[in-house]
Design goal:
74% helix, elongated, 86 residues, mainly alpha, signal, single chain
């Protein structure tokens, strides 16, 4: 009887460990689909745009959305910071 209880507990723990990875895998494929849509010309819906804002486009993607997003992410150099303080 004790072996059966251990088996049930082990199965429950295993199921709990697999649940978050399934969600992660689903969102990974969703992000990759959004990136593929961006390579094809741009995000096709609001969810794709949200995912691309959160995770970014792949480098070299030539769509207006990704280029506009990349234009806003310019690094701030030291000389620009000094000019901003004055």
């Amino acid at each position: 009887m004790m072996g059966f209880v251990r088996l049930i507990v082990a199965a429950g723990v295993g199921a709990c460990m697999l649940a978050p990875s399934a969600v992660l895998a689903d969102s990974y494929w969703e992000v990759e689909a959004a990136r593929a849509n961006a390579r094809a010309g741009g995000p096709t819906n609001a969810r794709d745009a949200e995912l691309l804002n959160r995770y970014g486009c792949l480098s070299g993607t030539r769509s207006r959305f990704c280029e506009a997003q990349a234009a806003g992410e310019r690094p701030v150099y030291r000389s620009q910071r000094r000019k901003a303080r004055r």
